[in-house]
Amino acid sequence: MSTPHISDYIKQSLSRKLSLWIVSFAALIFLISLGFMFSQSLRTVRQEAVNRATQVLDNTTLRVNSILQMVEIATENTEWVIKKHIDAPDSMFIYSKQILLNNPDLNGCSIAFEPYYFRDKGLYFSAFSLREGDEISTTQEGNDHYEYFYMDWYLMPKLLDRPIWTEPFFDYNPDDVTYNAMIASYCKPIKDEFGIFIGTISVDISLDWLSNTISAVKPYPNSYSIMIGEGGTYFVHPDKEKLFYQTIFTETLETPNPEISELGHAMLRGEEGMRQLVFDGADSYVFFKPLGNTGWSVAIVCPESDIFSGYTRLRRIVTAIVLFGLLLMLFVFVRIIRREMEPLKKLADQTGTIAEGHFDQTLPDDGRTDEIGQLSQSFGNMQQSLVTYIEELKQTTAMTASLENELKVASNIQMSMLPSVYPDIKGLDLHASMTPAKEVGGDLYGFVEAENQLYFCIGDVSGKGVPASLFMAQSAQLFRVLAAQGRKPEDIATYMNNELSENNDTSMFVTMFIALLHTDTGRLEYCNCGHNAPVLDGKFLDIKHANLPLGLFKGFEFQGESIEDVRGKMMLLYTDGLNEAENPAKELFGDDRILAFMAKADGMTSAEVLDTLKADVEQHRAGEDPNDDMTLLCIKLS
Q1: In CATH, which superfamily holds the domain spanning 218-307?
Q2: Has this prediction a pTM greater than 0.85?
Q3: In the chain, N or C: fewer CB atoms in 10 Å?
Q4: CA-atom Rg of the chain in angstroms
């Protein structure tokens, strides 16, 4: 009874089998729904923590900032009174005490002046008032043991020429009124009517009060507050051993921690925000914000264990349930998939044999009509197509090899058209080379020797490849024929232009520099047809006539130029493949580099010049393929 049942099941379509699986996947959908709700819960808990800590931090900084702002306003108001009664120094004691009477959160106030500012008061004059419980005492601050004008609270506003908040400090005065606790001071420079610094007014607040205010509120049981100064020093921290002796960066010195370093720098820059990191050895959320204009920054550290305690318990329970369900489904799916994929495994084994090159291997035909059966039939069709494609590929490869061989032959023919034997003329040093960018190129050079005369040229055909090489061959042949007739360079250019323009349907052209050197006198006659100006004696040749390239317009009359004597001067002719050679960064070899090289090439032979230039270009390209043919011709007559 079981065999027919299995046979009927196998003959079912793959879509029906997948339908059976969908039932099982309903459980997975349920888990996905739980996962979505779980992630939303996590996001809600996190956002609630952020809002809660941010609100506490905002309330704390708002309270502290209001006190700091009150200090700054009280200082500003007192400065106005000081300036108004600057001629009554003893009144400074009254103003120093009055600012404490009006502001019960302040601990002390100093109104200090430059040495000998009041001549009758001597070197020191600083009216200092101190709050001690409910009493306020006032005294003259400053003596040989306490030279206040060297203290930070006096010097910094003087040097910076602006109000400042000092870092918390212990202001020790052995012979006078002193604090018994750390203080922070708001210090403002006092200037006379001419804008000259005459003293400092300094108002103090207790660091203990500031610490208690900042640490008073906790958003979570184990959360705590910290405050750092402008240098990163801890001024508020639950670990008293870190106060004033460690910075937020101290623990990163032994064990680098980019996250804490970035947090510290962000706080020092006066930024506000939230960071999730390991702080003081615990995964925490750190919420930070600057305190007014003090340069200090306060932060609330909330351990993740506090924030997500309830969430963590729920996650553990759900994780256990999900793991159990996943293991159960894994067991079921493995059995189902193993059974259903067995025919595909056989098909994969057979197609692997075909992939090894056995194209005559017959794929198994199990008579299935479902998707697996259709897949087997498609593989069979693909096998036949592959055999046909391989035969076509073999033919194409043979044709490509034949074409490459023909191009190699064409390249050899083209190179054979360029002169390889140099004229044997006394005092003449001539060398040339042509390096095509492809198998065949469109550059050319040539020279024709006559009695006491030497014709030479260099050219660059528009475009590349086979069409350019054919145009190049025609141009080189025309130059040799016309030069052998003893024509002037401009006449050669005019005739070549007319010939090349005839039936030029492709609109190709060639730039050329055609020259005639009288080897007995050193006179040089030349005609430049839209080509790069040669380098003569370390400088670009001054081309006065802007002739067109050859082959553009029939009937154009070319004009020539001449130099009386070029003996002893080296001339370099080149095509764009030299100055426009590119490196991987698309930077050109450039004209300046050519000029700089030729300016130092007097002691070199023409062959050495070309070899060195080609090596420099190869080094400049740094492995990049040439983007154009490069032809060089160097000549010197001594």
Answers
A1: PAS domain (3.30.450.20)
A2: no
A3: N
A4: 46
